[in-house]
Sequence to fold (493 residues):
Amino acid sequence: MGKTPEDRQMFRAIGLVLTVVVITGMPAHAGGLLFIHQDTGANWLDGGLLEALNGKPYLDVVSSIAQGRAVLEDVGRPASLGFVAGDNTDMRHWIYWFNDYLVGLANYGRVSGVNRVIMFKSAPLNSDITDDGSEPGDPFSLERTLANYKAVYRHPAGPGNTYANGGYAYSPLEDIFTQNGDILFIAITAPPLHREGTTDANAHRARIFNDWLRNEWLSGYNAAHPGLRNVAVFDLFDALANPDDDLLYPNRLREDFGGSTGDPIPAAAAYPYLCDLFCENFIDAVWDAFPTPGSAQLRIADATGNPGETVNTNITLATNGTLPATILFSVNYDPGQLAYQGTVAGPVAIAAGKTVTANESPAGQVRLTVFGLNAFSMGDGVLMTLAFQVRPEATAPVVTLFGGNVSVTQPNGMGIDTTISSGIITIPSNIGEGEGEGEGEGEGEGEGEGEGEGEGEGEGEGEGEGEGEGEGEGEGEGEGEEPPPPGCFGRLL
Fold:
């Protein structure tokens, strides 16, 4: 769209230059932990878990979603858990959480950065499994059966298959976990019920399911994805339950943890015991096994605007092979601190180089639309970065930017568009140590040169006019039409 003189008084479109960055050696102090739970989880946090987790050097924030907590659904997904999503933590609800709310979970409770660890736990009633059920099972069913529980974690037809519900496709948890290798998912098994809260047969099924989850399913997941190690199972049920061969109350809550009280919530004595098991013997080991991903960043554009303005992008990408990756947008770059003050996630993630929810283009291309990044809610001056969080075993060394557009919409309805032409990002095979190269072309108005500082090594070439800050090195040529006023928009950096 053409720009009027009035537009130029408020914004300037600066030439497009592509700078590719490969960041290596990410610190272990990498992010936060989010725990989704009910009453038992709250008592556990208060009983020492929160203090212990806050002492872990690799966690910077510990957040929780509990009963009564509202969580917004992701863009393009249904509010399947209602407005108060925190009220829903039964086994059947996890397929909704991780298909319809995962982007929000990764950013929940964060001012900047993301939650690298997501823990989730169902309430004790989920240990009253009333029947074996029959395969293939129904992950959305209200019936608590072994077959239905297993269907939440794996599709009976194998990986890559989806369920249909309410007009939307739902992946089983193992596929969600595979597509999000930069998050460590920890499944906490549901606590055992007290003596009168279930039957011998139903409690025995709970043990069967938890044994299957921890041994058979998790072992199969790790064998299929040896480079991930991004899923763990903490068997809280086994920690608090009588053994399967107990003569009086097999698989019920132990006497010393409140098994005879009639209360479905374990007694206070259970929580220090669980803290010792989880924080001393478990989470450090699974974190150490969880590979810290490298990061390849393709910096698309920045926009310095006023409150109420909205930044929109529409971008088409393609890879030459499988690229396990997650789309993240870093926003609100603070030049004084040389850091971004916030991170938001796009509505989709790249999986297998071409499949992105229902948003697939021909020839393995992925069309990514991100919208509604509001300068009012993020603060004045929004600097966006499209960042691919790449795992070390990624097999696609090249990602191509086929083009797209970036625009700013002002409160009065006026808008300014800038076209992104093309670009290529090359990801080294040894992402943890290597270099990256990139090149691209673009158009715009204004003047400037690219400059940057940071970790890693990179090279870039481009044509057009532009200026920007970033990590790596870049070169650009061109001329500006006029000295620009304060504020800028439209750089492919």
User: Anything to note?
Assistant: Residues 5-25+293-463 form a domain with the Immunoglobulin-like fold (CATH 2.60.40).
